[in-house]
Amino acid sequence: MDNVTRREFTKLGALGLAAQAMPAAVAQAQQADARTGYAVIGLGRIADHFLRATRDSKTSRVTGLVSGHRDKALRIAAEYGVPESAVYSYEDMDRMKDNQQIQAVYVALPNSMHAEYTLRSAKAGKHVLCEKPMAISVAECEAMIGACKAANVKLMIAYRCQYDPLHLKAIQLIRDGNIGTLNVIQGAFGGPQPVGEWRITKKLGGGGSLMDLGIYPLNASRYLAGEEPVEFKAFTSTNDHDGRFNEVEENITWTMRFPSGVLANCTSSYGAHMPGYFKVAGSKGWIEMAPAYNYDGMRLRASYRNADGHSEEIDETSPDKDPIEFVRQMDHFTTCIRQNQTPHTPGEEGLRDMEHMKAIYKSAGIDIL
Amino acid sequence: MDNVTRREFTKLGALGLAAQAMPAAVAQAQQADARTGYAVIGLGRIADHFLRATRDSKTSRVTGLVSGHRDKALRIAAEYGVPESAVYSYEDMDRMKDNQQIQAVYVALPNSMHAEYTLRSAKAGKHVLCEKPMAISVAECEAMIGACKAANVKLMIAYRCQYDPLHLKAIQLIRDGNIGTLNVIQGAFGGPQPVGEWRITKKLGGGGSLMDLGIYPLNASRYLAGEEPVEFKAFTSTNDHDGRFNEVEENITWTMRFPSGVLANCTSSYGAHMPGYFKVAGSKGWIEMAPAYNYDGMRLRASYRNADGHSEEIDETSPDKDPIEFVRQMDHFTTCIRQNQTPHTPGEEGLRDMEHMKAIYKSAGIDIL
Predict the structure, then answer these.
(1) For chain B, which residues make up each domain, given as ranges?
(2) Is A216 known to be catalytic?
């Protein structure tokens, strides 16, 4: 068993044998592994994307799991070669401070738990990659930034689209001046939420569709414009009166003004089918991504005149392979940890969105966040 | 020459011979023609679409032209078989009251001239099909409605999209409940305007991009929602400081609320390349048209679950043949004239858009219209 390779181990793991049968081999394989170890906190859908992405990462691996469902956690631990000793409950996860195989955590919990688990992870000396929205209030975001600074650990918000090649290409096309003076950005993201979904509770979601889906076109507008919006006007509405939206808004539309004069129009919904997209319109052309916020199959189109005055047309679809941006995201954070650099999307990036969302809600007459 | 057919005449007309060579034949051919006769007032780009559409109409024809460019008007008169005696200048067009071959006019002038020429046409006893925007103020729209009523002539605003088969199909899909509860409508239309364009002058255009391009997604939002918006929030901006936008706004974004809770986000621009589109999102699916406001090649897509719970996908492109909706528009108005019916898009439809645009501008801090 001593010379079991990671690949062989993973195969055994998939059969559900590894965690029980080979603790010694596990420990040895993991200690020999130079990749940075992450503990995944919360094992829902988004965590699954992160976990699968570790298979394609040369820099990062999973070395711990935190869950309230131990059976599920043990099954996943076996699959990814995580030793049973590194499977924690929410109550005892502070013990991970003694686990040297865990250098960082990935917080994939409901929104309202982001702050608490970021603070506890920082206290345990772990770097924190936290899902968006960063938390459910400006004060929480500020506390998270402060706690990570005090503990001397990195904090990054998982804005995966900012690590996606097609989104980055869109940004570059704009920065290179291809579509001329930027005038208007539009975007939306929406999808019906089922009864019982934590996102539609004020307690766990913190707000309505803006928090979890509207944040995509909001964040995209900011990185496409390359500046911060300064004024907001919004409406909210709830049209499906089936009990799902007693606590949070179903729909929200807002328009915002940037200092340069760029205007943006964005929309999100927890009731309507609204495939995510963005459109950028400039004096020399336009760029559109639709779908823009899926896990795969994103499509970038652009039409503009190049420096020679010739028409350029772009039409690219991202490979139908799930975790590209998850891999790039974790590789980036791992690099920041190793080289002591500030992440491209630090806590301050999440704080800014929270401040903007607070202003958007306020314009719609809702005083939260 | 007596038995010259209309087709033969048109051929001769195209050679520039008809108007001079055959006044007797012209008069005879026209008197035998049962189609309703229109005088086209203003011979710009949109008039050309109307003129070409008369070739495909079984109900309507061109029997008069009003222009400040007599040479151009005579050339077009020859092409369409209009007698030289029915080619008027702006100064002497009131003489058309004595021309029994002209039952209606098509007002295709710059926005600020719509009111005056509608009033003069009504006074001459002619029914009025007027381009959108109806005028450049609420007061003008009200005067136009009053004048046509007093003169007992019909007034219709040329909202061509409301006569386009694909737009009508989109409306029907919504009314039939296919996409469930309506939640959000989005739309935009924009295109760079050249220096010297009448649209970018306050005097002729009346306002900026909202007046001529924003009116498309505004009007679409209303006929897609099937109700009137009651609240508006908007921003305007001008980013290209090259003198084109000293008088009117370059960009405008606005969001609006409908009584049912439907929210709409719309945008227009005179500086940016922004292909026209609309998207409608409901609880059971979505509908999108892009391009939506072109003269041809419009594409309707939809995705929803039908009554049986099966997925339905629609993807239809309108024939690459220019004037379908122009033909349907004029045929509708002709039918209304003959059967004494109120048009589907009467003056009141144009007045409502003007009131909404006034409210949108007001929200952006601009007190006009």
Answers:
(1) 6-159, 165-317
(2) yes
Q: Label residues A305-335 b or e (16+ Cβ within 10 Å = b).
A: eeeeeeeeebeeebeeebbbbbbbbbbbbbe
| Distance separating alpha carbons of residues B280 and B186, to the nearest angstrom | 7
Query: What token pair was written down for A3?
Result: 């010379």
Residues 211-250 of B with CB under 8 A from A: 231, 233-240, 250
Helix residue spans in chain B (DSSP H): 6-14, 18-21, 23-31, 45-54, 70-80, 114-123, 138-150, 165-175, 202-205, 209, 215-225, 324-339, 347-363
End-to-end CA distance of chain B: 53
Q: Which of the following CATH numbers is that of domain B165-317: 3.30.420.270, 3.30.360.10, 3.40.50.150, 3.40.50.1220?
A: 3.30.360.10
From the list B141, B59, B33, B54, the residue with the least C-alpha distance to B331 is B59
d(CA B65, CA B88): 6
Which residues contact residue A331 at a Cβ distance below 8 angstroms, ignoring those fewer than 6 apart? Answer: A57, A58, A59, A60
Distance CA B129, CA B162 (A): 14
Residue B251 β-bridge partners:
B237, B269
The tokens describing A77, both together, are 């631990």
Would you give per-residue pLDDT tens digits along chain A (369 residues)?
333 333 343 343 333 333 344 455 555 555 568 999 999 999 999 999 999 999 999 999 999 999 999 999 999 999 999 999 999 999 999 999 999 999 999 999 999 999 999 999 999 999 999 999 999 999 999 999 999 999 999 999 999 999 999 999 999 999 999 999 999 999 999 999 988 888 888 888 889 999 999 999 999 999 999 999 999 999 999 998 888 888 889 999 999 999 999 999 999 999 999 999 999 999 999 999 999 999 888 999 999 988 788 899 999 998 766 668 999 999 999 999 999 999 999 999 999 999 999 999 999 999 998
| Residue B27 backbone zone (phi > 0: left; psi -120 to 50: alpha; other: beta) | alpha
The model's pTM is 0.90
A265 contacts B266? CB cut-off 8 A = yes
From first CA to last CA, the distance across chain A in angstroms is 53
* CB neighbour class for B217 (10 Å; exposed up to 12, middle 13-18, buried from 19): buried
Q: Which letter, b or e, does each residue of B261-275 get, where b requires 16 or more Cβ atoms within 10 Å of its Cβ? A: bbbbbbbbbbbbbbb
Burial of residue B253 (CB within 10 Å: 0-12, 13-18, 19+) is buried
Same fold: B6-159 with B165-317: no
Please tell me the distance from the alpha carbon of residue A307 to that of residue A326, in angstroms, as a whole number.
Answer: 35
Query: For residue A26, which phi and psi values (nearest 5 degrees)?
Result: -55, -50
**B235: Cα separation from own chain's centroid:** 26
Tell whether A251 lies on the interface with B, counting CB pairs under 8 A: yes
- Cα(B82)–Cα(B30) distance, integer angstroms: 9
CA distance readout (Å), A85 to A65, A92, A162, A336: 10, 12, 34, 27
Pick the CATH number of B6-159 from 3.40.50.720, 3.40.50.300, 3.30.70.3340, 3.90.550.10: 3.40.50.720
For the domain made up of A6-160, give the CATH fold: Rossmann fold (3.40.50)
The shortest CB-CB distance from B183 to any of A233, A239, A363 is to: A239
Which residue is closest to B280 within chain A, CA to CA? A274
Residue in chain A nearest B266 by alpha carbon? A265
Residue appearing with tokens 């939809």? B302
SS3 label, residue B215: helix
Does B275 contact chain A (CB < 8 Å)?
A: yes
Neighbours of B294 (CB within 10 A): 14
